[in-house]
Amino acid sequence: MRQLFILVILALLPHRSAADAFPVEIDHLYGSARIEAQPTRVVSLSFIGHDFLLSLGVVPYALRKWYGPFEFGVWPWGQEALGEETPVVMQGEIDIEAIAAMKPDLIVGQWSGMTRREYDLLSQIAPTVASAPGTGDYGMTWQDMLLRLGQATGRSDKAEAVVDRINQRIARVRVDHPEWQGATGIMVWAGTTGAYTEYDIRGKFLSELGFVTPQAIRSQSNLNHAYVKVPDEDLSPIDANVLIWLDSGASVARLNRLPLRRFMRAYSEGREIYSDLMLSSALSHSSPLSLDYALDTLVPLLEQAMDGDPATEVTSSRAAGILAGGPADDS
């Protein structure tokens, strides 16, 4: 009976997956990183990687701030996971000497633009994980980035659980919106009229919801060319079933001045979505922490834009003062 009791208790205890046994080796763009033991001092060079680490319960010793007004470069969706911790904040180019002085036991650089020379130097400081082979600098899916970080930090079970939860939520959205499946959709940076393709993390998110990149944009993109500049003189490549303008908060006037925008079907049929600073950042991070905010905010806007009725206002566009709806005229 005592032996049976012990077996039951052991079965109920949390277990570590095989991937959490150290040492682990992770292949990447520049070779392979061998991590001998669970790291405790992680330096994140990825522009969005700190979100991924925080979702696993790992507060990086140092992180690379991308942009935004928030302390430590952590946006609101990550602040609860950050808690009272105060990571070192790095900005701009990768500073090898500063990183060496931090004495990290793991350096993670997925979605960092790390060069081969930088990797060669960083890997002499600590095991360094660059982007996965065949994905380019910024072409990894959020799922792969998280699973690899789970392996590197000894939290594979946690990473798999997070991926499963968000994947299931996205799957439910797809089932609830059959009209989105196969429709064209595009995210466009409003400041310069540049489209993000399915090779970019933002385009990948739209693809997960069932949308496809317009052929005119897809034909110009590849793994190393995931952002396609669209001339103001010809906006037809981005005239999709749904057009999402990503904005830093300073491009509304520019959008309203685009002379050919009012000739697009997306404009006249009310299928433009204005994405403000917070939503644009959530989509640009596309992290396990920001995706819930992105889904909560974007799905209702997509429903408004894709309901087939040009009279339905997209609330974010109207609130921002993006003039939309009504056929183009020559006045």
TrEMBL record:
<keyword id="KW-0732">Signal</keyword>
<keyword id="KW-0406">Ion transport</keyword>
<comment type="similarity">
    <text>Belongs to the bacterial solute-binding protein 8 family.</text>
</comment>
<protein>
    <submittedName>
        <fullName>ABC transporter substrate-binding protein</fullName>
    </submittedName>
</protein>
<dbReference type="InterPro" id="IPR002491">
    <property type="entry name" value="ABC_transptr_periplasmic_BD"/>
</dbReference>
<keyword id="KW-0408">Iron</keyword>
<feature type="domain" description="Fe/B12 periplasmic-binding">
    <location>
        <begin position="41"/>
        <end position="306"/>
    </location>
</feature>
<keyword id="KW-0410">Iron transport</keyword>
<dbReference type="Pfam" id="PF01497">
    <property type="entry name" value="Peripla_BP_2"/>
</dbReference>
<keyword id="KW-0813">Transport</keyword>
<dbReference type="InterPro" id="IPR051313">
    <property type="entry name" value="Bact_iron-sidero_bind"/>
</dbReference>
<feature type="region of interest" description="Disordered">
    <location>
        <begin position="309"/>
        <end position="331"/>
    </location>
</feature>
